[in-house]
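Customer escalation, tier 2.

The customer says the design service returned an amino acid string that "doesn't look like it belongs to this structure." They asked us to rerun it and document both sides in this ticket. The original structure tokens are below, unchanged.
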């Protein structure tokens, strides 16, 4: 039987009418940069969303929100962590996730860190 290349990482996919419309890669190994402000210690309960992609034609339809919420319920007791792409801060904020900025906000290269509230 074939084993996953990396057992800490998993991909979840969302389908509509048998076509993939979104996917997300999660990793048990959460890497939070210590230079972000007011970040809680998520410890072993952390689960990092490495990426969440929604097909361009499906953006704004709620499929990304549904996928993120499904992950929260599927991994109850875990804190989900995501570094938002430059244009995705609004998406994560509308989910009610807690926003954390880098200690050097003048440097625009830092992505915003979002952490889901505890369930």
């Amino acid at each position: 039987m074939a084993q996953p290349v990396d057992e800490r990482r998993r991909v979840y996919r969302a389908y509509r009418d048998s076509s993939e419309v979104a996917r997300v890669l999660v990793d048990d190994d959460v890497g939070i940069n210590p230079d972000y402000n007011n970040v809680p210690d998520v410890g072993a309960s952390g689960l990092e969303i490495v990426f969440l992609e929604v097909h361009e034609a499906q953006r704004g339809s709620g499929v990304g929100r549904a996928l993120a919420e499904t992950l929260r319920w599927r991994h109850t007791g875990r804190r989900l962590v995501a570094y938002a792409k430059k244009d995705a801060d609004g998406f994560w904020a509308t989910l009610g996730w807690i926003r954390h900025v880098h200690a050097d906000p003048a440097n625009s290269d830092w992505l915003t860190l979002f952490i889901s509230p505890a369930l």
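Tier 2 assessment: The sequence is consistent with the input. The helical segments are 63-74, 89-94. Residues 63-74 form the longest helix (12 residues). Sent an explanation to the customer and offered a walkthrough call.
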